[in-house]
Write a structure and sequence with these properties.
Blueprint (H helix, E strand, L loop, with lengths): L14 H4 L2 E8 H11 L3 E4 L8 E7 L4 H8 L7 E4 L2 E4 L1
Parallel strand pairs: 2-5
Antiparallel strand pairs: 1-3, 4-5
């Protein structure tokens, strides 16, 4: 049946709008974190300006709670990320 491949597709919606998993590959934190923060309705504050240019391979699962995501980001030794006063703070 020729219609089978289209059953799971949603042609009227861009794939990036519906994707539940986003892969950031060699993307700066300055590019990546504001996108994530906006999804969770948070602001970002960089207190460590060097951290802005750090490049990551990071898999973001949108169903993941923000605190879990921040714990995963904190595995990178070159920075510290925390949620404080509705803001994601990078030190």
């Amino acid at each position: 049946d020729a219609s089978l491949p289209m059953q799971n597709a949603s042609p009227s919606v861009a794939p990036n709008d519906t994707a539940q998993t986003i892969v950031f590959d060699h993307v700066t934190l300055d590019e990546m974190l504001p996108q994530i923060a906006a999804y969770y309705h948070k602001d970002v504050e960089f207190r460590n300006s060097d951290a802005r240019q750090l490049r990551f391979y990071f898999v973001w699962r949108k169903h993941e709670p923000l605190d879990t995501l921040l714990r995963r980001l904190n595995r990178f030794e070159s920075m510290s990320v925390e949620l404080k006063d509705n803001k994601i703070i990078v030190e």
